[in-house]
Amino acid sequence: MKAFSDLSEREILAVAIASEEEDGRIYLSFAEDLAERYPSSAKVFEQMAEQEASHRHALLNLYQKRFGPNLPPIRREDVKGFLRRRPIWLTRNLPLETIRKEAETMEYGSALFYERAAERATDVGVRKLLGDLAAVEKGHENIAMRIGAAVLTPGAKKAEDAAYQRFFILQYVQPGLAGLMDGSVSTLAPLFAAAFATQNNWETFLVGLAASIGAGISMGFAEALSDDGSLTGRGSPLLRGGICGLMTALGGLGHTLPYLVPDTIADHFKIATTIAGVVVFFELWAIAFIRARYMDTPFLHAVFQIVLGGAIVLAAGILIGGA
C-alpha cells in the first residue's frame, strides 16, 4: 500500500475518479435495495448517484487535459488509511436509517479526502476542482435534504413509515414472537413434569435449562434456514434466526430460573413452583399482548389462544410428572 503523502497529482486524481465511480455504484445499489420498500427514498439515492457521476466526469476532463487518457491502476484500497467502505451494500433489506447513516459517513470521508488532496495539489486548476468537490461533498447532506424535500412528500413519507412498520414486524417481531411462544409453551411440559416427578429444584432446573437451550438452538436454525429473505423481504436469515433462538431460550428460562431456589430452604419446591407459575402467567399474557399489538389479532382472541394453549400444556406436564 502507498502512503497518501507519496501520491502524485496524477495518482490523486485517479483515486478520486475511481472513488466517485464506486460511490455512484454504491448509491445505485442502495436505490435498488430500497426501490420496493421505500421508492421515494430510492429516488433520492438515484439522484445522489447522478451527482457522483457528474463529479467523476469533471475529474476525468481535468485528468485528460493534464495527463492524457490513460489512468494508472490505483484505487483507494491501495492507499494507507484512506476511505474504507464497509460492504454493507452487499446485504439486502437493510434498514433505511442504516443506509442513510452509511451515506453520511461516505460523504464525510470523501470531503476529508478532497480537502487533503487540495492542500497537496500544486496545479491551480487541480487545487480549485478538488476544493470545490470538498465543498460539494460537505454539502451533500443538504443536497440530500433538498432532494428529499422534493421527492419525499407527506404521502410518500406515510407510505414509507408503513413499509418500515411492515419490515420491523417481518424481521424482528415475527421471529421474536415465534421464539417466545415456542420457548414459553413448549418447555412447560418437560419442566413441570420433572418438577412434580422429582420435587427436586436443582434437577428440575437442569431439565428446564436443557430444554430451553435445546429449543433455542433448534428454533434458531429452523428460522434461519426457512427463508433467505430475498423474496419475502424478511431480512437477514442470520438476524432472524438469532432473534428467534434467543427469544426461545429466554421464554423457557423465565420459568426455569425460579428452580434455583436452594433445596436446603424449607418448602423449597412449593416456593419455586409458585414463582414459576406466576412467571408463566405473565409470559402468556405478554405473548397475547404482542400478538394483539403487532399481529392485528383481537386481544381476547389472542388471550384465548395463548393462555388456553399454555394451560393445557402446563396441565399435561403436571399430570405426567405426578403419575
Main features:
76% helix, elongated, Ferritin, 2 domains, 323 residues, 11 helices, mainly alpha
Overall description:
- The protein has helices at residues 9-34, 39-67, 96-120, 124-138, 140-151, 154-186, 188-198, 201-226, 237-254, 268-294, 299-322.
- It is mainly α.
- It has two domains: 4-152, Ferritin, core subunit, four-helix bundle (Ferritin, Up-down Bundle); 166-322, no CATH class.
- Helix 2 runs antiparallel to helix 4, helix 3 (96-120) packs antiparallel against helix 4 (124-138) and helix 7 runs antiparallel to helix 8.
SSE order and pairing:
Layout: H1 9-34, H2 39-67, H3 96-120, H4 124-138, H5 140-151, H6 154-186, H7 188-198, H8 201-226, H9 237-254, H10 268-294, H11 299-322
Mean pLDDT: 79
Structural class: mainly alpha
| Total number of strands | 0
Number of helices: 11
Rg from alpha-carbon coordinates? 29 Å
Order of helices and strands: HHHHHHHHHHH
Number of domains: 2
Assess the beta-strand content as a share of residues. under 5%
Short description:
The protein is built from eleven helices and no strands.
